[in-house]
């Protein structure tokens, strides 16, 4: 397995250094990283370059001028594949992957499922709220964790997620914590090259995967700690409406 981690970034000067340092300190160093700067207007690129120099990392940084998390993630994924990656993991520039995130992803891809030799081609993990960037209390973080579990459950019973075109049940997937084989990524067309204001590219990807294969799985030991800044600014209800299908549409999505 040749694993590459991709990270789309737009104006994440305040957070991306911590994300990259967390990866740099991974116990398993056998992976590549491709960061896609989505034409940031702040000091994101300087922060990236500083961490790469600090740790003497051979990571790749590219630029995507088309606005959109989906566009940036797709450009990073295709660059990783061009560089020889057989498996691609994604996190975001405001997230902290768990200490053993890399090992957990590799282990997930080799785990045999109920169908005998049925190892997955797509892996989703779970995301827990960070408490360090927004200052939320541990109690508030536990509430948000419960809300996330409710969202996972709701996705499984949501009528629009059923249909004969799908080869398996719905699995809620966050763009900040997923992994896919390069072969399947190419087969399903990858992340939609869209902006988050228009389409949730992570939801589009898992739906495309479900149409192509039953070999996808949720692994709860694949953990990322994600920023809760949207929820803290929008509130829980409006955030759920946003993620469910843009039923809430804020004026500003790129919160900093």
Task: Give a brief rundown of this model.
The chain is an alpha/beta fold and 256 residues long. The protein has helices spanning 16-24, 44-55, 69-82, 101-110, 138-157, 182-188, 201-212, 229-234, 236-245; strands at 3-9, 32-37, 60-63, 87-90, 96-97, 122-129, 178-181, 216-226.
Write a structural description.
- The protein has 256 residues and is an alpha/beta fold.
- Helix content is 39%, strand content 18%.
- Helix 1 runs parallel beside helix 2 (44-55).
- The model has no long low-confidence stretch (mean pLDDT 88).
Characteristics of this structure?
256 residues, alpha/beta, eight-stranded mixed β-sheet, 39% helix, globular
Strand content: 15-25%
- The overall pLDDT average reads 88
Q: Give helix % range.
A: 25-40%
Q: Strand order, main sheet: write it out.
A: 3-2-1-4-7-6-8-5
Rg is 17 Å
Instruction: Specify the structural class.
Output: alpha/beta
Question: Number of helical segments?
Answer: 9
Overall geometry comes to globular
Strand count: 8
Order of helices and strands, N to C? EHEHEHEEHEHEHHEHH
């Amino acid at each position: 397995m040749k694993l590459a981690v991709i990270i789309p970034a737009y104006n994440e000067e305040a957070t991306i250094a911590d994300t990259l340092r967390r990866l740099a300190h991974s116990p398993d160093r056998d992976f590549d990283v491709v960061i896609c700067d989505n034409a940031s207007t702040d000091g994101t690129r300087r922060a990236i370059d500083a961490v790469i120099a600090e740790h003497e990392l051979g990571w790749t940084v590219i630029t995507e001028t088309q606005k959109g998390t989906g566009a940036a993630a797709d450009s990073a994924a295709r660059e990783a594949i061009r560089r020889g990656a057989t498996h691609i993991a994604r996190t975001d520039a405001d997230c902290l992957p768990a200490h053993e995130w890399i090992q957990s992803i590799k282990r997930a891809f080799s785990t045999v499922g109920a169908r005998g030799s049925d190892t997955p081609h797509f892996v989703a993990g779970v995301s827990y709220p960070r408490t360090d960037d927004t200052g939320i209390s541990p109690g508030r973080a536990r509430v948000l964790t419960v809300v996330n579990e409710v969202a996972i459950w709701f996705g499984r019973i949501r009528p629009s997620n059923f249909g004969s075109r799908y080869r398996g049940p719905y699995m809620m997937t966050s763009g900040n914590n997923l992994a896919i084989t390069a072969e399947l990524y190419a087969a399903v067309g990858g992340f939609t090259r869209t902006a988050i204001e228009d389409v949730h590219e992570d939801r589009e990807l898992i739906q495309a995967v479900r149409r192509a294969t039953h070999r996808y799985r949720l692994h709860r030991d694949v953990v990322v700690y994600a920023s809760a800044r949207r929820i803290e600014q929008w509130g829980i209800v409006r955030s759920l409406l946003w993620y469910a299908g843009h039923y809430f549409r804020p004026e500003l999505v790129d919160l900093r």
